[in-house]
Amino acid sequence: MTSQNKSFRPQSKVPDLPDLIDLTQTLIRFKTMHSRLDQIHDCINHIASILEAHDIEFRHMVNSGSPSILVTPGTHEFPLLLMSHIDVVDAPDALFEPRMVNGRLYGRGSYDDKYAAALSIVLLLKRMIQLRQAGKHQTDLKMGILITSDEEIGGINGAQEVLRSIRPEFSIILDGGSINEVITKEKGIARVRLIAAGQSCHASRPWLGKNAIEMVMSDYAKLRRHFKTQQDTHWHPTVNPGLITGGKIINQVPDHCELCLDIRYTEHDDIQALLDRIEKETDSELKVDLVEPVFISPPSDYLSQIKALSKDIKLGYEHGASDARHLMPHHLAGVVWGPNGNLTQHSLDEHVEIDSLYLLHERLSRFIDQL
């Protein structure tokens, strides 16, 4: 991991505070897919240039090719960390040209998660202006921001790495929820593969071989029994067969098949015991590629302060996961929060409701003022 600290002498004139919507649109125009690492670096460099222009000290880190930006008061312990990311899932070129229609901002990353990077920057710069007007400095900040570029592929080189070196009292992951729903828990993830080895032969005489695809299908039916529970809330373990490979030609019994499974689980599930049962009950080889923890925030007085911002705010949960899970190994408190996006992340219709984004800005500004 490479890291570079940036500090700057005050300029004669600091630029005006960027407009929240304008900055979000600027960030959307960067095609920050993981197939375009050059665009990811260009976007992070653009953010760095904004911080430089406003005389903000920051760390520009690169870990295994993934860049991140971290701003703190200069210590590893501080009250609040705002977390966001600028990487996005693949999209056609048209989605990287933002559009505003009927009170909504459309474009790849408008909701997941470039509004959040823009919002973090605007809130930080606004607070720095207030401090400087009072004759204070960045060391007097009660907040920091972390903008990463690998959340969509697991956050291993971004949030997971950076959170080892800092200890915020409370984190707000701006990557989910809605304006009146603050997320305090998210399901954990297990990604596993069933790998079957059969015996090939001509398709006209299948009794002479052993069909690896049929083996995997049979094993999937067995393990599926562990995921039958249905509730209105759907707060129970789920499994999705997301990718299958097997066979080379239609008139040959396949001797190899691999099924990739995405398992989500709750705090009530013993994921290791579940995987052990699956391994015992299936004939295919079970390969565990990834197990990530459930996110449940430890108790924090800061959560009460967030709820006090509006009588409309309720606590909720998410079936998906975010970089919030990387708080768990360090026992750090936090929540996931955001504006209204109508669950359009990763879709061709991705958008954020502009009024809700302004309302989130207002609520977070009040929250930061209370620190």
Structure description:
By secondary structure, this protein is of the alpha+beta class. It has 2 domains: 244 residues, Zn peptidases (Aminopeptidase, 3-Layer(aba) Sandwich), CATH 3.40.630; 105 residues, Alpha-Beta Plaits, CATH 3.30.70. It has a 7-stranded mixed beta sheet. It has a 4-stranded antiparallel beta sheet with strand order 11-12-10-13. Helix 1 crosses helix 3 and helix 3 packs parallel to helix 8. It is elongated and about 85 Å long. About 2% of the residues have low confidence.
Counting H and I runs of at least 4 residues, what is the number of helices?
8
The low-confidence runs, each spanning 5 or more residues with pLDDT under 50, are: 7-12
CATH topology (fold) name of the largest domain: Aminopeptidase
Assembly category: single chain
SS-based class:
alpha+beta
For the record, the count of structural domains works out to 2
How are the strands of the largest sheet arranged? Answer: 1-2-3-7-4-8-16
Total count of strands: 17
Q: Major β-sheet, in short?
A: 7 strands, mixed
Give the SSE string.
EHHEEEEEHEHEEEHEEHEEHEEEH
Overall geometric form: elongated
CATH architecture of the largest domain: 3-Layer(aba) Sandwich
What Rg is obtained from the alpha carbons, in whole angstroms?
23 Å
Instruction: Kindly state the percentage of residues in helix.
Output: 25-40%
Average pLDDT across residues? Answer: 95
Q: Give the DSSP E fraction (strand runs of 2 or more residues).
A: 25-35%
